[in-house]
Amino acid sequence: MTKPQQLKKEQEVSVLSQYISESSFTVLTDYRGLDVAEVTELRAKMREAGITFKVAKNTLIKLAAHEQGITDLDSYLEGPTAVAFSADPVTLAKILVDFAKTHNDLEIKAGLLEKKNVGVEDLKNLAELPPREVLLAKALGAMQSPMYGFAGSLAGLLRKFVYALDQVREQKEQA
């Protein structure tokens, strides 16, 4: 192998390793059978969601994963492999599962969630979760709910106190 080829491969391993370390969710797919238009459609959906999608040689993916101390993916690195990297696991899972429903040739091999192996069934379960923004809104609503209840209770006590003062004032005026 010539020196430039070796450097190019080392750079690609370095880039893949960086993507693995920086993303919270990494998914391996087999895209065999998809035509160029379908792969382009999938890439566009991922790009729109801020997800990185790369086709790479299995040996380079394996080297990059090993640099991060990950060996769980070795058994899935057979055949053509494309890797998706995302900070938002739910969005990536939704895109891949939805795309696989309409394009039977896309096979989801495995995933890494926070550097831990995730099976295809777990990935499908992730896809059923609401988007991150909805989950955050629900959590915020749950946190605000007791405060609203407390504020309502205080307002009720204040109303009762003002009503009691008004009753005392009326009694003194009549006396």
UniProtKB/TrEMBL annotation:
Keywords in alphabetical order: Ribonucleoprotein, Ribosomal protein, RNA-binding, rRNA-binding
Coiled coil: none
One protein family per Pfam: Ribosomal_L10
Superkingdom, natural source: Bacteria
Record-linked Gene3D superfamilies: 3.30.70.1730, 6.10.250.290
CDD domains linked to this entry: Ribosomal_L10
CC per GO annotation: ribosome
Role noted for this protein: Forms part of the ribosomal stalk, playing a central role in the interaction of the ribosome with GTP-bound translation factors.
Family (UniProt): Belongs to the universal ribosomal protein uL10 family.
Quaternary structure (record): Part of the ribosomal stalk of the 50S ribosomal subunit. The N-terminus interacts with L11 and the large rRNA to form the base of the stalk. The C-terminus forms an elongated spine to which L12 dimers bind in a sequential fashion forming a multimeric L10(L12)X complex.
Name recorded for this polypeptide: Large ribosomal subunit protein uL10
Source lineage: Bacteria, Bacillati, Bacillota, Clostridia, Eubacteriales
